[in-house]
Amino acid sequence: MHRWWRDAVIYQVYVRSFLDSTGDGIGDLAGVRAGLPYLKKLGVDGIWLSPFYPSPQHDHGYDVADYRDVDPVFGDLDEFDRLMAAARRLGIRVLLDIVPNHCSSEHPWFREALAAPPGSPERARFHFADGRGPDGAEPPNNWHAMFGGPAWTRITEADGRPGQWYLHMFTPDQPDWNWREPEIAAEFDRVLRFWLDRGVDGFRIDVAAGLYKHPALPDSDDPEADARTRDSVNPLAWNQPEVHDVWRHWRSVCEEYAARDGSERLLVGEVSVPTAREHARYVRPDELHQAFFFDLLGAPWDADAFRKVIAEAMQDIAGTGSTVTWVLNNHDQVRTVTRYGEPTPEGSGLGPARARAAALLMLALPGAAYIYQGEELGLPEVVDLPDDVLTDPIFRRTGSRARIRDGCRVPLPWSGQASPFGFTPGAESAKPWLPQPEYFAEYATDRALADTRSFWHLYRDGLQLRAALAQLGEGELRWLDSPPGVLGFVRGDGLVCAVNFGTSPTPAPVPGTPLLASGPTPAGILPGSTAAWWINDL
Fold it and tell me: Interhelix angle for 182-196 vs 243-261, to 10°?
């Protein structure tokens, strides 16, 4: 069996910002279908679709009201089937985003829980508990939600009296499922099979280290840790040992489908845990196929820091028999150009050069890689969106712009000199759901394809070489002795990747003309903030 996922390059499609087919200013599944030839030309192996299920959109689809349908704003099941058929014709795999940690407060089961009495089977599907203090007026424990504020909300009972509290590790609109209740596992089994029967190639699993909470729901020694770091670090709410049983079962479901036609279905987890060794537990042979390795994304622009996280991943994660799943960005992170450079609207400074070098480095590493939409255009973060257009629940709950995610979700520019830049059709169409800055004209897809020096061509050329060279994809790497500030390694029969993290020209680890470079590179010299690939035939 060909294990296609081990070295696959997957493109994340944030559906509402990819391409709008209807003129309402919101991207949709028909828009994704129209964009598939573009992605085929880029050279990716598959796409991961952000949630398109029915939802009140309090967290843009990560608050799911129905796991087995399509929200009308994105289309319907017939359109989904057309998208799947088109992807099949082009040889593009399709992964769906599944959200098993929590649902929408408008999910029918949560509505039933609100109407049912304390101690009922309906409430057992979630985490309902009596409050503490006089009249139960204080939350059951001191946990804080990742998006700010307490992790508990008190309800009003059917008789009008203040009642129990329910747990939500993100927002009150997203109550957490109680996975200690067997009915939850059975329901998600039905959800998986519904989409697998429609032909999907796998799932990206939101909050994959979540699901189970400590059974006693005790107080935390650091209750504000999740809100302060905006990461799942509360050990009482995340990374409980029982979660691994869920992934073993889901893996068995995927293997059942693979046995029918010989094509493996993929499970890739959003796993936020403290160390690469803990990360590795999620990708053991009978659990998830992949889990995003976020340490590379979080590493500062420094050769020693990059080498450390790459070496740990290769030792601990690849040591399980899986391959490392590398990422530099996603829909929750500041765009790479801005993260590596100066936080200006235009993304000036060293950011573009560093982002190009980092992309080439990622594509040279053994394992799989995920690319967030717009990174192949070199899009900067939109840092100056006015408060009145911000939609991120982090901003709504905290009033702070720190770490909000709207800036990386602005709709893509496709063509033209003014908004909507081809994102939404027709002169009378609605404005994009988030405003596009004027400077997006410089990054439009049509301009990127026409300019052989663009980010797009760097990604496309890197993906083509990755597919053509046996040294890339699977396999190991061997570190090279390199000058200070330079990271170099060799793959397979002699493919060398080198990155100069400094700002001045540095001799390359090997002589010769590079196969591909992230910037202008004279033979034998690797300028600062540049990456290059060579074949070492000496």
Answer: 30
- Where does residue 259 rank: exposed (0-12), middle (13-18), buried (19+ CB within 10 A)? exposed
Tens digits of residue pLDDT in 69-111: 999 999 999 999 999 999 999 999 999 999 999 999 999 999 9
The amino acid occupying position 385 is L
Largest CA distance in the chain: 82
| Cα gap 420→430, rounded to integer Å | 9
369 contacts 363 by C-beta, under 8 angstroms = yes
What is the H or E stretch that residue 48 is in? strand 46-49
Residue indicated by tokens 């995340």:
238
* Residues 368 and 283: beta-carbon distance below 8 Å: no
Distances (CA, A) of 211 to 127, 178, 205, 244: 11, 7, 11, 10
Residue with tokens 């990456």: 531
Gyration radius of the chain over CA positions: 23
Residue numbers annotated as active site: 206, 256
pLDDT in tens, 54-70: 999 999 999 999 999 99
Angle between helices 455-468 and 351-364 (to 10 degrees): 10
Q: Which of 431, 534, 428 lies closest to 490, judged by CA?
A: 534
Of 405, 401, 402, residue with least CA distance to 333: 405
Backbone φ and ψ for 281, nearest 5 degrees, come out as -65, -25
Task: Report pTM.
Answer: 0.95
Q: Which residues pair with 433 in a beta bridge?
A: none
CB-count exposure of residue 212 (10 Å: 0-12, 13-18, 19+): buried
Residue (of 279, 274, 277, 308) closest to 293 by Cα position: 279
Does pLDDT of 346 surpass 50?
no
| Per-residue burial over 453-465, b = 16 or more CB atoms within 10 Å of its CB, e = otherwise | ebbbbbbbbbbeb
Total residues found in the chain within this entry: 538
Q: Which residues pair with 98 in a beta bridge?
A: 205
Nearest-angstrom CA–CA distance, 251 and 236: 25
Cis peptide before 420 (omega within 30 of 0): yes
DSSP one-letter string for 138-202: B-SS--B-TTSSBSEEEEEPTTSSEEEEEE-SS-TTSPBB-TTSHHHHHHHHHHHHHHHTTT--E
DSSP states of 246-268 as a string? Answer: HHHHHHHHHHHHHHHHS-PPEEE
